[in-house]
Amino acid sequence: MAKKGGTQSGNPEPGGADAGSLSGKPGGDEGKSSKKKRLFLIIGILIFLLILGGAGVLFWKWKAGKSHEAHSEEEAPPHAEVIVIEEDPALKNMVALAPFKIPLKDSMGEWVFRVTLSLEAESASVKEEIEKRQEELREALTPLFQARRPSGLQEVDSKIALKTELIMAVNAFLKSGKIKNLYFTEFFVI
């Protein structure tokens, strides 16, 4: 005896054994294997592109090296201009002093003030005097640094005042002339 809407006629019933293959349960291995194939394909393409890119970079560097060698062997074109850079006269009379390391104390504790100065001399003779008397000049300037408080050295106005005092002290120290300017090339409190 056959059931109505039965399975013996070959038509699957809803919720029957064949419905599981549509939902991917017993016969769902085909979907998993196609996902793995896609993943391997994508990874393979990425590896291929990386290899291709690396080969391209190597070729480009090799080609650039050959063209650089070819250009270095050639002479400059006849229409090329030669540009001469003149030395700045102000830099000719610059003197850099060795860094100062000044211990300072305040209510917050002990600090080290590190400052490096460059002096712009008005002439070559002043530059020579600064170079010859550098140690004496450093000893004359040290008390000006020691008189400062660490908190005051952080303010712009204080730095400008210190610069003005240093210029006046250096000019009073020198015998053969004066300095035009003074530059802080290093200025910090540790």
Task: Describe the overall structure.
- This protein has 190 residues and is of the alpha+beta class.
- The protein folds into two domains: 28-84; 89-189.
- It has six helices and four strands; from the N terminus they run αααβββαααβ.
- It has helices at residues 19-23, 29-73, 89-92, 124-132, 134-146, 156-173, and strands spanning 94-96, 100-106, 109-121, 179-189.
- Strands 1, 2, 3 and 4 form a four-stranded antiparallel beta sheet that branches.
- The protein is elongated.
- Mean pLDDT is 80; it is low at 5-9 and 15-24.
List keywords for this structure.
190 residues; alpha+beta; 2 domains; four-stranded antiparallel sheet; 6 helices; 49% helix
Write the layout of secondary structure elements.
Elements: H1 19-23, H2 29-73, H3 89-92, E1 94-96, E2 100-106, E3 109-121, H4 124-132, H5 134-146, H6 156-173, E4 179-189
Antiparallel strand pairs: 1-3, 2-3, 3-4
Strand content: 15-25%
Task: Report the biggest beta sheet as strand number plus sense, adding barrel if it closes.
Answer: 4 strands, antiparallel
C-alpha Rg (nearest Å): 41 Å
Number of domains: 2
What global shape is seen?
elongated
Q: Strand tally, please?
A: 4
Number of continuous helical runs: 6
Distance between the termini: 102 Å
Q: Enumerate the spans where pLDDT stays under 50 for 5 or more consecutive residues.
A: 5-9, 15-24
Structural class: alpha+beta
The level of helicity is: 40-55%
Average of per-residue pLDDT values: 80
Secondary-structure element pattern, one letter each = HHHEEEHHHE
